[in-house]
Amino acid sequence: VESSRFLTFMWGLSALLGRGSTIAFCVTSSSSSSSRAFSSTTAMSATQYLLRYDYIPDVLEKRGPYREGHLNLAKQLIAEGKCLSGGPTGPVGMEVPKGALFLFTSADAAKLFVEQDPYVSAGIV
């Protein structure tokens, strides 16, 4: 039987941040003789951090003065390679986002984002 490489995901809660939370997960590759949906031809090992925000119900009315700072901080961390992706969450076709997800390369980067994000200090999150 031919050996293949597969991704293994290990999840763990790393911190709770008021109306947001950070979850750490590790992506590794391993060999197996069975087939699975997720496969990789290159070895990989990295821990990434998913930051989840829950927005207040009236986010659209209150985010205005803070939105540019929030978006610029995300863009800065993306440009520095500390944030891999991010954006609003909610039902398909939503008019009002329910929250947001961000994927960071380190716990320190996720913590920095929360500490510097105007949405957090203004109570949007």
What does this structure look like?
- The chain is α+β, with helices and mostly antiparallel strands and 125 residues long.
- The chain is 27% helix and 40% strand.
- It contains four helices and five strands.
- Give the % helix: 25-40%
Beta strand count: 5
Strand order of the largest sheet: 1-2-3-5-4
Q: Element order, helices and strands? A: EEEHHEEHH
What characterizes the major β-sheet?
A: 5 strands, antiparallel
Structural class: alpha+beta
User: Which word captures the global form?
Assistant: globular
Mean pLDDT: 77
Our Rg estimate from Cα atoms comes to: 17 Å
What ranges have pLDDT less than 50 throughout 5 or more consecutive residues? Answer: 1-18, 27-44
**How many DSSP H or I helices?**
4
Ordered list of secondary-structure elements with their pairings:
Layout lengths: L3 E14 L2 E13 L12 E10 L4 H4 L1 H16 L3 E7 L9 E6 L2 H10 L1 H4 L4
Antiparallel strand pairs: 1-2, 2-3, 3-5, 4-5
